[in-house]
Specification:
6-stranded mixed β-sheet, 13 helices, alpha+beta
């Protein structure tokens, strides 16, 4: 079985070699861990955001720039394509690791999760395991990690600190906006598995698009905007070896099937007293889905793009 960590290392090495052109900064901590700053002190850029996203997906997807134009709203967008949907999104890209060491906190995603089994249930459900001597973790944070953070991550992954690579980008950065929108396919797979309890190994191919959020002034506002790009602007195309349950599942898959749908994410978050656990997890899904049943040849669609909420979110 392909190693998401070893596969992603090829992209990380490319980022290191082209650091100056990508506007990222590479530093080696005293324990040998490599930190790639993609937006904390470095400026980053679109290309760095695309590579960050592909690393996050274990090198098992392509992420490219495209355009979102709908009802007068025109924005840059990402298109994500993968022939390994469950592994690239749930085994790697899913933000399933809360990294907290002392005062440092970051949401961790990417290939290293498969070594640390964060969370273990995900890997059991998709029947995936990785065995690598190198670990690569993507951190969503406005602070760079230190040696203590690196030691903690390396220990959880069972690798030497000098074989650990940490990519860091704040939500309120160009790389942050790109990499969150690149989670559009992941949100579809996440809802299928975690909310609808559907066998995601039936999904054989996937592609999706989402607008890239205008960069916000702070991480809080950016969190709202970037989520809205998927909830109200994302489209996912899934190719599934279907069963009798598939038509019903498709109806429930888009974000509009949630009781929390219809408001910018920051309003939803505020009404939930800033407690993620009070938010209906079903709202974390693409706005629109198109599903091709490979068993019957039929295609099902559900959901729609909601430009009004996007404009409200962006202050347009």
């Amino acid at each position: 079985m392909v190693s998401v960590n070893e596969n992603a290392l090829l992209l990380v090495e490319r980022m290191i070699e082209r650091a100056e052109l990508l506007n990222v900064e590479v530093q080696e901590l005293e324990n040998g861990t490599t930190v790639i700053d993609c937006g904390v002190e470095a400026t980053g850029g679109f290309e760095a955001g695309l590579l960050f996203s592909e690393v996050c997906m274990g090198g098992l997807a392509t992420v490219e720039l495209t355009e979102f134009e709908h009802d007068g709203l025109c924005l840059p967008a990402v298109q994500v394509t993968t022939d390994h949907p469950a592994v690239s999104t749930l085994a790697a890209q899913k933000a399933g690791w809360q990294v907290q060491v002392g005062d440092y906190f970051a949401m961790g995603s990417g290939p290293a999760r498969a070594l640390a089994l964060k969370p273990k249930e995900t890997y059991e459900e998709i029947d995936y395991e990785d065995d690598a001597d190198v670990a690569i973790l993507c951190l969503e944070s406005s602070e760079l990690p230190d040696e203590d953070v690196a030691e903690h991550v390396a220990d959880e992954c069972g690798v030497d600190p000098e074989n650990l690579y940490l990519l860091v980008a704040p939500t309120a950065s160009i790389v942050g906006s790109v990499q969150v929108s690149a989670r559009v396919v992941e949100t579809g797979l996440y809802k299928l598995l975690e909310v609808l309890e559907y066998d995601v190994t039936r999904v054989k191919y996937a592609t999706g698009t989402a607008p890239i959020a205008p960069i916000a002034a702070d991480d809080g506002e950016a969190m709202g905007r970037t989520n809205d790009c998927i909830l109200y602007g994302g489209t996912v195309y899934l190719y599934v070896e279907g069963d009798d349950e598939l038509p019903k599942v498709v109806e429930e898959l888009p974000s509009e099937a949630s009781e929390d749908y219809g408001k910018p994410f920051m309003k939803i978050f505020e009404e939930a007293d800033y407690d993620f656990y009070k938010i209906d997890p079903g709202v974390f899904a693409p706005a629109r889905v198109v599903v091709n049943d490979l068993s019957t040849g039929k295609t099902y669609t559900a959901g729609e793009i909601n430009v009004d909420v996007l404009k409200e979110s962006f202050g347009l």
